[in-house]
Amino acid sequence: MHTPVTIIGAGLGGLTLARVLHVHGIPATVYEAEASPAARTQGGMLDIHDHNGQLALEAAGLMDEFRAVVVEGRQTIRLVEQDGTVLHEMADDGTGGRPEVQRAELRRILLDSLPAGTVRWGHKASGARALGEGRHEVAFADGGTVVTGLLVGADGAWSRVRPLLSDATPEYVGTSFVETYLYDADTRHPATAKMVGGGSMVAPSPGKEIFAHRETGDTLHAYVALSKPRDWFGAIDFTDASAAATRIAREFGDWAPELTALITDADTAPVLRPHYTLPAEHRWERVPGVTLIGDAAHLAGPNGEGANLAMLDGAELAKTLAAHPDDAEAALTEHEQAMFARGAEAVTFEGAEIHGIDSENNTARAMLEMITGQGE
Ligand SMILES: Cc1cc2nc3c(=O)[nH]c(=O)nc-3n(C[C@H](O)[C@H](O)[C@H](O)COP(=O)(O)OP(=O)(O)OC[C@H]3O[C@@H](n4cnc5c(N)ncnc54)[C@H](O)[C@@H]3O)c2cc1C
């Protein structure tokens, strides 16, 4: 007999968990802070990897729906020097293992696959407490509560469930992204559109980097990375879009104008996205009746794995619970051991040391050597 599962957070991790539980006939309810699926734009494109995110979608029985929303040709990666020289391009020949989709479409596929009423919107968890014998009470910001025999925190970096298991809190890693969008780029920003090319483009340098992506249609989405303390960004007034863009662009004063236009010519106000991490070795002793998945459990800098891992965590936890119908504790133990190993591996992935943004080796040429073994 399966215990119904209470999930906090309807991100990709929590929704994948709910879906795979549903596939196995296990009831679940997801409590989500946001008021509705449309409460917030969902961010840009995600590459969904064949070794983690796609395995989760297979377990969810949603591969056809996933393939239908893949944006073709976007796996091309272009390596650019700061003067605008294109050093290398890895073309998308359609066989790569990391097809790109819009995050919002992936979330919609998962939401549409759940029985009506599975997600309870507008339920922001404010805390949770143990009631003994594996039962927990979750309190919500509106004063409501729910009691559950099996609680999963899928509520991201600032999880309200995590304190039941661990004292760890995310720490600023010393780098932030500034996010911008350029719309109708082929006609309105042609030089920059040409520079970015058909997929993604990265222009790295020690301490700073511009990464841009061609999204659906000809929208360009850029992450401008700067290695600076929080206080440095704190001194910039991001409510004054033009002044903020000018200040950020000043850090790239000697870069090609087609690249800096991703900051200065943006059609949206620049949005600051500081990076936080949990320690690579973050883990906890088993606490009956509760666990975590995704960013709530393991939080790495932006390495293109977080959403993929959150989905795999959700799928694997659901499968493990299905395999232990009368012993949820055995399932949670198995899930955590596997997840701890996956999370640590993603943080300390090969190349992370030498290609930290602060590294002197964070250059297009060094990156090319690492990727292809050639200096060109
Ligand atoms: C700028 C940026 C770019 C990124 N790019 C990529 C990429 O290209 N590829 C990739 O794989 N990963 C990427 N990531 C990482 C990825 O976004 C995360 O790892 C992933 O979203 C984690 O999924 P999750 O379901 O664990 O948490 P989240 O996506 O954070 O979802 C948590 C959910 O819980 C809800 N919630 C939060 N608190 C509460 C509460 N108290 N009560 C109820 N609900 C709550 C939130 O509203 C949200 O819906 C990027 C991250 C950033 C910041």
Q: What does it look like?
A:
The model has no long low-confidence stretch (mean pLDDT 92). The protein contains twelve helices and 17 strands. It is an alpha/beta fold and 376 residues long. The strands form four sheets. A seven-stranded mixed beta sheet has the order 5-4-13-14-15-12-16, with helices on both faces. The chain has helices at 12-23, 53-59, 63-69, 103-112, 185-188, 190-196, 230-234, 241-250, 257-264, 306-323, 328-347, 364-372, and strands at residues 5-8, 28-31, 45-47, 77-80, 86-90, 100-102, 119-120, 125-132, 135-140, 145-148, 151-153, 171-182, 200-205, 208-214, 220-227, 271-277, 290-292. The radius of gyration is 21 Å and the shape is globular. Helices cover 31% and strands 24% of the residues.
Strand-pairing-aware structural class: alpha/beta
What is the rounded distance between the termini? 61 Å
Give the biggest beta sheet: 7 strands, mixed
Q: What's the count of strands?
A: 17
Q: Give the radius of gyration.
A: 21 Å
- Percent of residues in β-strands: 15-25%
Mean pLDDT, rounded to whole units?
92
What percent of the residues sit in helical stretches (DSSP H or I)? 25-40%
Bound molecules: flavin-adenine dinucleotide
Widest beta sheet: strand line-up: 5-4-13-14-15-12-16
What overall form do the CA principal axes indicate? Answer: globular
- The succession of helices and strands, N to C, reads EHEEHHEEEHEEEEEEHHEEEHHHEEHHH
- Low-confidence spans: pLDDT under 50, at least 5 residues? none
Helical segment tally?
12
